[in-house]
Amino acid sequence: MEERPASTLSALEYDPAPESAAVARLRERYGLFIGGAFVEAADGATFETLNPATEEPLARVAQAGEADVAVAVAAARRAYDKVWGKTTGAQRSKYLFRIARLIQERSRELAVLESLDNGKPIRESRDLDVPLAAAYFFYYAGWADKLEHAGFGPDPRPLGVAGQIIPWNFPLLMAAWKLAPALAAGNTCVLKPAETTPLSALVLAEILQQAELPDGVVNVVTGDGSTGAALVASPVDKIAFTGSTEVGKVIQRRLAGRTTRLTLELGGKGANIVFDDAPIDEVVEGIVDGIFFNQGHVCCAGSRLLVQESAAEEVLHRLRRRVDQLRVGDPLDKNTDVGAINSAAQLEKIRELTAWGEREGATRYTSPCALPERGYWFAPTVFTDVAQTHRIAREEVFGPVLSVLTFRTPEEAVAKANNTTYGLACGVWSEKGSRTLWVAERLRAGVVWANTYNRFDPASPFGGVRESGFGREGGRHGLEAYLDV
Amino acid sequence: MSERLDVRKTYKLLVGGAFPRSESGRSYEVLDAKGRFLANAAQASRKDVRDAVVAARSAQRAWWSLTPYNRGQVLYRLAEMAEARAGELAEQVGRAEGTRAAEARAAVGRSIDRLVWYAGWCDKVAQVLGGQNPVAGPYFNFSVPVPSGVVGVLADQASSLEAFVDAVAAPLATGNAVVALASEARPIPAALIGEMSATSDLVPGALNVLTGRTGEVAPVLASHEDVDGLDLAGVDDGFAGELAALASETVTRVLRGADPQDRGLKRLRAFVETSTVWHTIGQ
After folding, report:
1. What is the pLDDT of residues A105-155, one digit of tens each?
2. Nearest CA in chain B to A465
3. Which among B228, B269, B276 is the nearest to A446, CB-wise?
């Protein structure tokens, strides 16, 4: 079949199909959630959260200081000692099922709120973030009364109070990844959302109220890095952190010598390896999914494309054409593929690293798409002629920026893929199963996607090796992070 | 008088399958539990640690590329070697720890049995710690436990053989390579296990045994960029904190407080990474 010329496709126009922002039921102020109630910070401090697509303020949110964190941890401790620690697995299970259902009931509101606060396309928050958040609660709900069958011995015990620090790229989903297994295992929690995306966790707190989860079992302290540092310094039994490798190392150092348990889900520089026998249309979609999904704000993003030399020209030609079709703009528009960069700071970091890409001699291709005038935007960008030593090949850009390298043999692909201090995720594209498994066996990564990319499921363990962190979230394995075993 | 003069042994390091004296040429006096001279042990230097880590890194690939069945046979072979030299081990454990002969023999028996236990784990751990994950979509999704890589073991100071064997056999069973520092004051039983491993078809470098000063060697091992896991069994809490802080520089996995008598899987789980593979299902 003859291919349609690119001009036909690019001429296709879509009418805007915006979701209504009113669905999010935004309020002007949001408090901390401590001991089952919404409260102001002790010193009255607040901060503003913006809509990154417009730079307009969305709401003011309480900034938790050390005193507030201490109160939240004490509330969690009390709830653990007096209530949650004595609650049977079957009861915990039913609370978690309730939460899952309530998330489903309020899914549209949560999706719009998430897109407003984070900048991600409504299509993704609606189809991925929110349904998966509900699915994680649903999955771990079922574990709460079956822990003795989870393979950690006959009497697995909870750890106690868990401090959980989550990033801004999947605010609600990360809250679910942290809370669901922790609660199922019988712990109480103090959750610290990211500074730029605090809102969905606070609506989740409302949902916990609606579920009548006992007071203090989950507490939410919003704020900046100082709030997270206060949580790490507080007398908790467990810290679970998702974020940058840099901050993860600081936390690991601060906890050295303490008995506080730690799991870390850190950065990545995932290799997406394409062999020349892979079906090219699927490959191109997979590459796009791997790096442009969620504006590339994904720790497991396939940010290094390793393509076999014999296929490189064809793959890159089609990839550029596909990149040109990506619609960048209003996150609330259901047709949008790539939304807003989450913050000015992140946009600056992406600009700095891409400038380095040019400076170090890589060839830059940026989609000619029009960008809105206000807000934080970065057009999808592909670098070719990238050397392994370039900063864009070594450092996590955490944006819609792909670095392309080539290889000739499977051995070379594996060597290049593993040439990083990270080890979170990789992709392998080939029609030859034996080769895919051979490569997967040799990749130093916690997750390998074969002929797909960026798939997540509550039953599937997720987490890294090497400097991408330790511990798993999801599946039976995810329970271990919250059990004293 | 013509009583036969015994032939004494010089105890050396085990690095990459070879038995060097420390490259530094240093040694230190090892005394028995009653304070009598027992031996001059090699005093490992920073360079010895680095050499051992290099050897371990390279051996780890070869060790992990053996079939699990084969790894199990090698660990079982080590148990056979230990059984054959049980008398020698018991004598050295008794001298080092000051225990009665019967007690020392019992400790040796438990150590050998522990090796057999771990030998059997080599081809079972993947099924017990891994499995298929029932994801909601057309994917075949499975998780397997893969080795962290190179594991540094700071062996228990008091239990010279039993705790040492437990601490090194577990990471070996899961496919790691090990750089172990023996008990500082009681290094001889560990050195003997090193000797036996060299005749057990173990990939040279998969187990490296150092003797020396814990205070000198431990920080080098903990801060080494190519060490993926660290077992802090043999250091006190204060020092463990310092070493864990060094380990954080490269997100090294740290194990603290595993009980050598424990029949649980804590040590087996400590230095494995769950690797999960998704593969599309379609026609």
Report:
1. 999 999 999 999 999 999 999 999 999 999 999 999 999 999 999 999 999
2. B273
3. B276
Q: What is the pLDDT of residue B176?
A: 98
Q: Enumerate the active-site residues of A.
A: 265, 299
**Residue A75 three-state SS:** helix
Contact A256 B133 (CB under 8 A): no
- Specify which residues B254 forms β-bridges with: B230
How distant, in Å, are the alpha carbons of A251, A292, A357, A383, A423 from that of A353? 25, 16, 6, 12, 21
Between CA B149 and CA B157, with CA B151 as vertex, the angle to 5 degrees is: 170
DSSP annotation string for chain B? --PPPPPP--B--BBTTB-PPPTT--EEEEE-TTS-EEEEEE---HHHHHHHHHHHHHHHHHHHHS-HHHHHHHHHHHHHHHHHTHHHHHHHHHHHHT--HHHHHHHHHHHHHHHHHHHHHTTTHHHHH-EE---SSSEEEEEEEEE-SEEEEE--SS-TTHHHHHHHHHHHHTT-EEEEEPPSS--HHHHHHHHHHTTTTPPTTSEEEE-S-HHHHHHHHHH-TT--EEE-TTS-HHHHHHHHHHHGGGT-EEE----TT--SSHHHHHTEEEEEEEEE---
A250: Cα within 13 Å, side-chain hemisphere: 11
Using DSSP's 3-state secondary structure scheme, residue A112 falls into helix
Contacts with A403 (C-beta within 8 Å, 6 or more apart), sequence order: A303, A304, A305, A357, A362, A383, A386, A390, A392, A393
CA atoms of A205 and B210, how far apart (whole Å): 53
d(CA A9, nearest CA chain B) in Å: 29
- On chain A, the residues whose CB falls within 8 A of the CB of B283 are none
Model's pTM, two decimal places? 0.95
| CATH superfamily, region B10-280 | Aldehyde Dehydrogenase; Chain A, domain 1 (3.40.605.10)
In this complex, the residue of A253, A421, A459 whose CB is nearest that of residue B248 is: A253
pLDDT in tens, A88-108: 999 999 999 999 999 999 999
Query: ipTM value of the model?
Result: 0.94
Band (pLDDT 50/70/90 cuts) for residue B259 is confident
- Closest to B277 (Cβ–Cβ): which among A450, A470, A485? A450
Q: B279–A436: do the CB atoms touch at under 8 Å? A: yes
Task: Choose among B248, B82, B101: nearest CA to B168.
Answer: B82
Count interface pairs A-B at CB distance under 8 A: 116
Angle between helices A130-143 and A171-184 (to 10 degrees): 10
pLDDT of residue A12: 62
- For A46-86, the pLDDT digits (tens) are 999 999 999 999 999 999 999 999 999 999 999 999 999 99
First to last CA, chain A: 59
pLDDT of residue A82: 98
How far is Cα of residue A485 from the mean position of the Cα atoms in its chain? 27
